Amino acid sequence: MFDKLKKILIPDKNNSEEVDEGQITGMREPDIDSERLERVSRLTPREYQLYLLLLEGYSLRECADRLNVKYPTANTHMTSMYKKLEIKTRAELIIKYRDIRNH
């Protein structure tokens, strides 16, 4: 297995044999974008609205005002959203999901 991995990471210019990455089982990274898209698709419409507002930089209190709900309700939506997205902080939300806005 090391030889196959070495051929991928350090190609030998003298060796014309190409190694398909799929030949190395267990070495492929999961398609992170499809995983994140699938998680976002699990959000309820209200959680998704909150998700978009949080990504735009609004505070949770501002989100509650914009969504015309009370702060505790927005907080409940956020907690549920974080569980579905498998994150713990707003920073993690922005880092992992800032590029996924439409589903």
TrEMBL record:
GO terms for molecular function: DNA binding. Transmembrane segments: none annotated. The keyword Phosphoprotein does not apply. InterPro entries: Sig_transdc_resp-reg_C-effctor, Tscrpt_reg_LuxR_C, WH-like_DNA-bd_sf. The keyword Transcription regulation applies. One of its GO terms (biological process) is regulation of DNA-templated transcription. Residues 36-101 form the HTH luxR-type domain. Keywords: DNA-binding, Transcription, Transcription regulation. It holds the Pfam family GerE. This is Regulatory LuxR family protein. It comes from Sedimentibacter saalensis. The lineage of its organism: Bacteria, Bacillati, Bacillota, Tissierellia, Sedimentibacter.
